[in-house]
Design brief:
This protein is mainly α and 192 residues long. The protein contains ten helices and no strands.
Length: 192
């Protein structure tokens, strides 16, 4: 039986998507190859025919999902781009994002795992993180070094607020973490 020519690419994409969801939910050490394969509806053999190991999957997850999706940081006036960023921050630093790690950003869920991974994954993480900060700095006003500094601060608040609020019991304090970080991040978008 002949398979369609794009069968392997589609299978790899399915494993990547399901693996990303499973890693965001369980962490790198919280799920094995069998669990990752099962989450994608494939066998462990199919997993290994697409990824040499879990580290290879983690690297591809970082490449595919870190900083994605992000707003269009190139088109429109500065005010329009800042409005889009403010709206995006409100979606990111939210109780909905906190409650759904499987569909959320990889940064709050996997940064600690990346810190314990090999140098190749850490380099990919740095490259993708730097690209996100560069795109974000295009939305900010001021001088280049100031914009980059503020962009790094915003990213740190985004990731930290979600990670901290997820670690806390649901309630007022966890919500306050998000609210405080969001207000501060928005203030950094267009400081007065």
């Amino acid at each position: 039986m002949r398979y369609p020519s794009d069968q392997k690419a589609r299978a790899k994409q399915a494993i990547l998507q399901a693996g990303a969801r499973a890693l965001r939910t369980n962490g790198f050490n919280g799920i094995g190859i069998d669990g990752l394969a099962a989450s994608a509806g494939v066998t462990s053999g199919a997993f290994y025919s697409n990824f040499s190991n879990k580290q290879a999957l983690l690297e591809d997850v970082i490449e595919a999902y870190l900083g994605e999706p992000f707003i269009d940081s190139q088109s429109g006036s500065l005010t329009q781009r800042q409005d889009r960023l403010t709206e995006w921050l409100a979606m990111y630093i939210s109780a909905d994002h906190r409650a759904d790690p499987a569909s959320g950003c990889v940064m709050p869920s996997l940064s600690a795992d990346v810190a314990r991974s090999n140098a190749q994954i850490r380099v990919a993480y740095r490259r993708k993180m730097s690209a996100l900060v560069h795109k974000m700095s295009n939305v900010l006003d001021g001088t280049g070094p100031d914009r980059e500094k503020r962009a790094w601060s915003i990213v740190a608040m985004m990731v930290g607020a979600i990670a901290i609020s997820r670690a806390m019991p649901d309630g007022e304090e966890a919500d306050q973490v998000l609210e405080s970080a969001l207000q501060t991040a928005i203030a950094l978008v267009a400081p007065k």
